[in-house]
């Protein structure tokens, strides 16, 4: 467990070109391309329809009911970052709203992922500031206890290190380790190209039973057709 009250200013972020390449792909594709790793629990949801983000993580460890460290984190945000916040224990309080979103946007942030609550959803939608959260909750928070910024955090069962790439869309949130960003982007591109070929075959009426050569294994297991 990392000590509380720590802010790491020096963060090695994933290569910008690799982040840009990953931004072209959906969460499901990235997750599959990475070997089905890095996915956050599905309770982390976009707070408004159409929210999407891809950027390098500035990580935050929050205390329950206390959003002080989000203000501390704002100073560490650079253009293209996303803030990724975990909590020392479960909390669904409204840590984040329109004012903090305005502050983060001014710093160049591309959004927030938080294992906690968020409020001011209509304002966030109007701003088109993407937030993925555990809950929507109007309950406010205090500024009284120290957490940390830019330390490894576990967010909805996914380990996030500062500088990792976080991709989020309607299907969920996936974390790509910074060192694997370029490799995963290339694998995602290959996967999309292969899927387009399959998509055309499905459009032409071919069945998955034949496309994936399923008939033999099914027969071996005893699948029987009765007329």
TrEMBL record:
<dbReference type="InterPro" id="IPR036704">
    <property type="entry name" value="RraA/RraA-like_sf"/>
</dbReference>
<protein>
    <recommendedName>
        <fullName>Putative 4-hydroxy-4-methyl-2-oxoglutarate aldolase</fullName>
        <ecNumber>4.1.1.112</ecNumber>
        <ecNumber>4.1.3.17</ecNumber>
    </recommendedName>
</protein>
<dbReference type="GO" id="GO:0046872">
    <property type="term" value="F:metal ion binding"/>
</dbReference>
<dbReference type="GO" id="GO:0032787">
    <property type="term" value="P:monocarboxylic acid metabolic process"/>
</dbReference>
<dbReference type="GO" id="GO:0019336">
    <property type="term" value="P:phenol-containing compound catabolic process"/>
</dbReference>
<comment type="similarity">
    <text>Belongs to the class II aldolase/RraA-like family.</text>
</comment>
<comment type="subunit">
    <text>Homohexamer.</text>
</comment>
<comment type="function">
    <text>Catalyzes the aldol cleavage of 4-hydroxy-4-methyl-2-oxoglutarate (HMG) into 2 molecules of pyruvate. Also contains a secondary oxaloacetate (OAA) decarboxylase activity due to the common pyruvate enolate transition state formed following C-C bond cleavage in the retro-aldol and decarboxylation reactions.</text>
</comment>
<dbReference type="InterPro" id="IPR014165">
    <property type="entry name" value="LigK_PcmE"/>
</dbReference>
<comment type="subunit">
    <text>Homotrimer.</text>
</comment>
<dbReference type="Pfam" id="PF03737">
    <property type="entry name" value="RraA-like"/>
</dbReference>
<feature type="binding site">
    <location>
        <begin position="97"/>
        <end position="100"/>
    </location>
    <ligand>
        <name>substrate</name>
    </ligand>
</feature>
<dbReference type="GO" id="GO:0047443">
    <property type="term" value="F:4-hydroxy-4-methyl-2-oxoglutarate aldolase activity"/>
</dbReference>
<comment type="similarity">
    <text>Belongs to the LigK/PcmE family.</text>
</comment>
<dbReference type="GO" id="GO:0008948">
    <property type="term" value="F:oxaloacetate decarboxylase activity"/>
</dbReference>
<dbReference type="GO" id="GO:0046395">
    <property type="term" value="P:carboxylic acid catabolic process"/>
</dbReference>
<keyword id="KW-0456">Lyase</keyword>
<feature type="binding site">
    <location>
        <position position="119"/>
    </location>
    <ligand>
        <name>substrate</name>
    </ligand>
</feature>
<keyword id="KW-0460">Magnesium</keyword>
<keyword id="KW-0479">Metal-binding</keyword>
<feature type="binding site">
    <location>
        <position position="120"/>
    </location>
    <ligand>
        <name>Mg(2+)</name>
    </ligand>
</feature>
<dbReference type="InterPro" id="IPR005493">
    <property type="entry name" value="RraA/RraA-like"/>
</dbReference>
């Amino acid at each position: 467990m990392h000590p509380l009250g720590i802010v790491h200013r020096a963060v090695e972020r994933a290569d910008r070109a690799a982040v840009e390449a990953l931004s072209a792909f959906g969460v499901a594709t990235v997750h599959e391309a990475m070997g089905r790793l890095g996915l956050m629990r599905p309770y982390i949801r976009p707070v408004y329809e159409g929210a999407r983000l891809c950027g390098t993580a500035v990580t935050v460890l929050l205390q329950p009911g206390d959003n002080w460290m989000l203000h501390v984190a704002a100073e560490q945000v650079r253009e293209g970052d996303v803030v990724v916040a975990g909590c020392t224990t479960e909390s669904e309080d409204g840590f984040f709203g329109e004012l903090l979103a305005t502050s983060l946007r001014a710093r160049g942030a591309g959004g927030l992922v938080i294992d906690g609550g968020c409020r001011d959803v209509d304002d966030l939608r109007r701003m088109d500031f993407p937030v993925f959260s555990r809950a929507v909750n109007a309950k406010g928070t205090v500024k009284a206890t120290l957490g940390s910024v830019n330390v490894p955090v576990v967010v909805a069962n996914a380990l996030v290190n500062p500088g990792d790439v976080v991709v989020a869309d309607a299907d969920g949130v996936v974390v790509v380790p910074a060192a694997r960003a370029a490799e995963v982007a290339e694998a995602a591109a290959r996967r999309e190209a292969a899927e387009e070929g399959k998509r055309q075959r499905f459009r032409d009426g071919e069945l998955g039973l034949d496309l994936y050569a399923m008939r033999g294994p099914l027969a071996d297991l005893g699948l029987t057709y009765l007329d």
